[in-house]
Amino acid sequence: MKERTRRKGKGYLDRLEKEFDLPYNWKVDSLKDFHRAMEQGLKGRKSSLPMLPSFLSRPTGREKGCYWTLDLGGTYVRVLDVALDGAGEFSIVFAKRFAIPRKVMHGSGEGLFDFLADCLLTFCREHPDHSNEERALAFTFSFPTDQHSVNSGTLICWTKGFTTAGVVGEDVVVLLQEGLKRKGLRKVRPVVLVNDTVATLMAGAYAQPTCDLGVILGTGTNACYPERIERIGKLPSEVKGGEMIINLEWGHFDGLKRNRFDAVVDNVSPNPGRQLLEKMVSAMYLGELVRLMLVDLTEAGILPSELTRGRERPFSLSSEEAARLAEGETDGWSSRFRLKKEEGQMLSHLSRLVFDRSARIAATAVAAILTWMDPALTSVHTVSVDGALFANNPFYQEEMRRTLREVLGAAGERVELLLLKDGSGIGSAVAAAVAERD
Ligand code: BGC
Question: Is residue 158 lining ligand 1, measured as CB closer than 6 Å?
Answer without folding.
Answer: no
